[in-house]
Amino acid sequence: VLEGDLLNTQTRENLTETIRSTARLKLLSAVDPKTMIIYAPKQVKHTVTVFTDVDCAFCRKLHSQIADYNKYGIAIRYLAFPRTGMNSQSYYKAVSVWCSPDRKAALTQAKLGEPLKQITCDNPVRDQMALADKLGVNATPTLILEDGSLISGYIPPDRMSKMLDQLAAAKP
Predict the structure, then answer these.
(1) Is 53 annotated in the active site?
(2) Which among 25, 26, 84, 131 has most CB atoms closer than 10 A?
């Protein structure tokens, strides 16, 4: 029986995290991009998947800098994760965003704290919340990087760009 992470003491590689990262990428690859809200530059250098809550202050800060992430070549793919759970105000706001004919405009409106017309439809919010649970997401924003790494919290655009460039350069 082993509790905790398995580490290679010679290379200092966290073998458990490597397996988790691979599993995260496999689960994310099954998500239809049409169910995401994607902000991408013309030339995509990196892609980050973000579990977001429309009422989260740091999610709002990240969203306010979408143009800067895009300037660095970073595509942001949003998935819904209302932290207050099902049948909460944040949940209904997320449903309204994902049901909106213009999801990007509705997301921006919601993140600015502006009221949204409450609408409903067949939407992916519940499925995205279940995926977040499978991935171990418990905070917002939670970022899933291209290598499957999971990072909880806001990272400024310039720092994220440097970090993603370093990850790409270290890739075998």
Answers:
(1) yes
(2) 131
